[in-house]
Amino acid sequence: MQRRTFFKLAGLGTTAALGAPLVRGADAVAIRTGCVGEPARDLPLAGEADVIVCGAGPAGVAAALGAARKGAKTLLIETHGCLGGVWTAGALSWILDSANKTGLMAELWQALEQRGARDLTSKGKGTNAYDTEAMKLLLEDLCTGAGVEVRLHTRVCAALKTAAGRMEYVVTESKSGREAWRGKIFVDCSGDGDLAAQAGCGFDLGHPETKLTQPMSLMALVAGLVPGEIVEYYHSEETAANWGATKDKLRAEMERGGHSPSYAKPTLFHIRGDLFALMANHEYEVLGTSAADITRATLRARKELNQLIDGLRGLGGVWKNLRLVVTAEQIGVREGRRIHGLYTLTTDDLREGRRHADAVCRATFGIDVHATNPKREKGIEKAGFRPKPYDIPLRALIAKDVGGLLMAGRCISGDFLAHSSYRVTGNAVAMGEAAGKVAATAAKTNRLPQDVKLEEAG
User: Fold this and answer.
1) Are 271 and 129 in contact, with CB atoms under 8 Å apart?
2) What is residue 416's three-state secondary structure?
3) pTM score
């Protein structure tokens, strides 16, 4: 590591302009009304890589694996203490739009089955459910086995560009302090497009008219239920054709227990044995880009989930042994920034089922807008049409405004309705894998991502 290499970052202004300084150790901190001027300081260069991936959720892990397996020196930076993002820290436990995916998504399902971490139907067919703890270890094993350098407990807080507008460094904050990392190509897999926004990319956020975003949901894992006794309340092989009815019956039971859920379509997913995942919460009119909003949403959601579960247990019968095992460390944020790319996926792509020569995958999930206004609807908003399977093109994964930057996952370039379909994690894995391969090829050949053909990247 070049620990003796430093970068000087300018502060918000000079102490003379801001007023009398306060002394903090050897630094002078200048203050004016509503603003603090941070003194310039030197940052250590903590490391360099061909490809730097920011965010280790489904898209980020896939991007890191895609790059490392192509021979690129790869760094994966993650805020939480595990890999997997919403899959693990978010306790999602259920993967959508993965059945038609090949490559890494199919590899993950196979590995989970081999580890006994995927639920099977009575006929031995794998369901969409998985064990979150097993997923953590699997992702760590895959990344370390591929030679990915993993940095946990680290948040990306700034991006530095060359005069020509190409990304060259990310700045992070952690227990190790503030550090800089140099890369050739970067992939934003933060979910909310944090890296791209810090780099100066344009973006859209929320509904084009109301500016409201889809509500957040805090997942919970619960135990003490006998699957055969609650078949009418959860999605299973026997109830697959009438999943809506199971949700309505579960809501009725919650209301009978004294609490009406903020999400009108509460859902139980069977993981294995007596372990289930529960999604029953909606946090409305909150932004995934606001720490204050996320904090308030998390506190409200955790309280609501405890009340709902306590209410069900109080009914006795099939619920008498119901217990809350854990609530997610990370609330599920459905919608953040949609970064402007070289192509923008639109509602028409879904309506027409458009094909693209540079397709990274085919999305088959429907439009899934969780209601933004609880006064009108607390379930899923009606789209007015059923989308046809459509392609997600590589161009939607390449940043328009900053060189050397790709996106993967729900922060790619798309409109409000299209985003509600492609945002699910089966698609995120396919996007991430493609972005990682293209990033590795671009880094190794000193090109920009838009100059790399998808078939060349493999």
Assistant:
1) yes
2) helix
3) 0.93
Which stretches of 364-410 are assigned E, i.e. beta strand? 390-393, 405-407
Q: What is the pLDDT of residue 240?
A: 60
- Is 293 in contact with 287 (CB distance < 8 Å)? yes
3 state DSSP class of 122:
coil
DSSP state of 314: H
Minimal CA–CA distance to 440: which of 48, 7, 44, 52? 52
Q: Does an H or E element contain 279, and which?
A: strand 275-279
Tell me the pLDDT tens digit for each residue of 423-447.
999 999 999 999 999 999 999 999 9
CB atoms within 10 A of CB 164: 7
Most distant pair of Cα atoms in the chain: their distance: 75
Cα distances from 66 to residues 71, 212, 249, in angstroms, run 9, 34, 43
Contact residues for 363 (Cβ-Cβ < 8 A; gap 6+): 97, 389, 390, 391, 392, 421, 422, 427
User: What would the pLDDT profile of 217-264 be if each residue is shown by its tens digit?
Assistant: 999 999 999 999 999 999 776 666 678 899 999 999 999 999 999 999
End-to-end C-alpha distance for the chain, whole angstroms? 31
Q: How many CB atoms lie within 10 A of CB 121?
A: 13
Ramachandran area for residue 116 (φ above 0: left; ψ -120 to 50: alpha; else beta): left
Contacts (Cβ under 8 Å, ≥6 apart) of 186 = 51, 52, 53, 54, 159, 167, 170, 195, 404, 405, 406, 439
